[in-house]
Amino acid sequence: MMLKRILFIKKFNINLKDFCLLFVIFFLLQTSNLISQEITANVLVSNKNKTISENIKISGVEAKNDSIFFLLNEILTINYVKFNNKNIKFYIDTTQNEENQKIYYLISEKPIKLSDTLSFNINGKFINFNDSIKNNFETNGNIVSDYGIFRANCSAAWHPLIIKNHNITDVYTKKYNYNLSIKSDKDCYIQIADKKPVKQQTTINNYTGKIMLLIGKYKWNKIDNNIFINIDKNKQTEIQQYTSNIKNYYDSLMGIPINNNFVFIRLKTHDINNWAFFNYPQIVYIDNQRNKWKDDMGLISHEIAHYYFGNIYIPKSNLHWFYSESFTEYLSFKYQIHSKQMQTLKKKYHTLKLVKLFNLFYIYKVNGYSIEFINLKYVNDKYKLTEVQVYNFSPFQLLGIEHEIGEEKMVKFIKTVFSNISNDKDGYITMLKSLKQVGVDEKTIHKIEKKYFFKLKLRKYKFVKKYF
Ligand SMILES: [Zn+2]
After folding, report:
1. d(CA 1, ligand 1 centre) in Å
2. What's the Cα-to-Cα distance from 223 to each of 33, 47, 101, 195, 279, rounded to whole Å?
């Protein structure tokens, strides 16, 4: 028995890396009409000295009580904060923690009005990863340089992200209005949003969205409004074709057209567990030697599906990662089935089988990953959802729901459930309620729960094989 376990673990170690595609996303701009915060920034980045310094002004912040919170990347140090040109005290909140970011609060004697200005003077030193200093833990929540290309993602909090009502999730879905002036070393290109890169110095005015700074030496090309950075010519044509087919399919299925174009960026790094992340409109591929672009279709169809989940539909729920990542991956599955290119879907189906087998032997953790099937009914905290659950099990559960109720009702269900989960603490119950709302009868709802949500029953997913 023991020997068997060891053999299984060994086999799994090899397979897990291939089967568990981890697509990391960061939340996109929200399309609501909320008054956006105005961010005016002067940023100086030296790739040579590995330093960043920022002068940032933020207005459009409203705080009725006298303290406000903000997130800032941990590599950055605040020299001072001013409230309408007067120094104001700020503190690090040691009771809360966010990955790669610190939470600060500042205390103002007066309430903060929309017209008031908060000014920040900030600097920091970043790491330049390369073959001798390896970036083994890639995250879009970092400000780093990898092989000479610096990047600072909005979600990495390269500028202060003001938290309202103590709700950190809101920070990542918020849109900002930017006026930026960026400077860098002589030989560097600067890419801001979907604009053409400029050498050494660039400005952007009145840009609403999210901004990832990209600074360094790289190849740049534009085809039909899609931008390709550090991607070779043949691959560009391929991605261009995928993108247009995927957009067309999603348009007709979801009834909501994707009018936007994308920036495809290839970043070289060492971490073997990450594949891609999306910081609208940038889709970033992690080139870690292992990916070798072999799952392009699954990867692009996943990231483009985030146009809906995380952008049009905001996953405000205790089942946050289910509503953002599992729905996104479900849509990617749909495209793969439609286009009859099911490489990723097939791999994940095999993972499902493998995990079931492991669970039969009471093995719930492999290589540090939790592979235990989770009943969503009992998840009260978004961090309880594991990556394997979110990317490998739950997209199949959603295929299962569709299998029972049909595609038309499924699309209605998606629209309904996302309009119901606003700040939801009981995302599972809301899912059941939403099914009822679109006309699924009690008996079918109970059947769905029993077949797909209470336990991992492989035989219930036999219908998936028919697609192969
Ligand atoms: Zn994703």
Report:
1. 38
2. 31, 28, 36, 13, 20
